Amino acid sequence: MSIIRITKNAHKMLMEINKQYKKDYIDFGIKSGGCSGFQYILQPCNKPPNKLDEVIDMKEYKIKIDNDSLFKLINTEIDYTNDIMGNRFVFNNPNSDFQCGCGKSFS
After folding, report:
1. How do residues 59-88 score in pLDDT, each as one tens digit?
2. Cβ atoms within 10 Å, residue 8
3. CB 93: neighbour CB atoms within 10 A?
4. Are the C-beta atoms of 39 and 30 separated by less than 8 Å?
5. Which of 12, 63, 73, 84 could be cross-linked to 56 through a Cys-Cys bond (beta carbons 3.0 to 4.6 Å apart)?
6. Residue closest to 43 by CA, chosen among 67, 59, 24
7. Strand 25-33's sheet: what is its strand order?
8. CB of 78 within 8 A of CB of 6?
9. What average pLDDT is seen over the chain?
10. Which of the 8 DSSP states describes residue 99?
């Protein structure tokens, strides 16, 4: 069982991002900000994980989740959608009480 879930659409897009940027990891975490209190981070990086960070090896790429974000991201599903509103990652987080309409922040 994995800490997070990644849909097929998100997996395809993360593989493309990894090919394009050629970084060691895709950093997934949260930071203070956004209109709801916390904002998701999903970005390529070369910064090695700290001792307590979680690394998920997806074969084609590795997702690094920093220890400070871990408990707020457990069981989060990362999806990628392409609809009339545009192309974007969507985060389905069962730990959030409220999610902003933009889908990029939560509380």
Report:
1. 999 999 999 999 999 999 999 999 888 899
2. 9
3. 19
4. yes
5. 63
6. 24
7. 54-57, 62-65, 25-33, 37-45, 105-106
8. yes
9. 88
10. B
Torsions phi, psi of 7, nearest 5?
Answer: -70, 165
Residue 34 CA to residue 16 CA, distance in Å, equals 26
Q: How far apart are CA 45 and CA 74, in angstroms?
A: 21
List CB contacts of 48: < 8 A, sequence separation 6 or more. 24
CATH number of this structure's domain 5-94: 2.60.300.12
CA distances from 56 to 61, 82, 107 (A): 9, 25, 25
Where are the chain's structural domains? 5-94
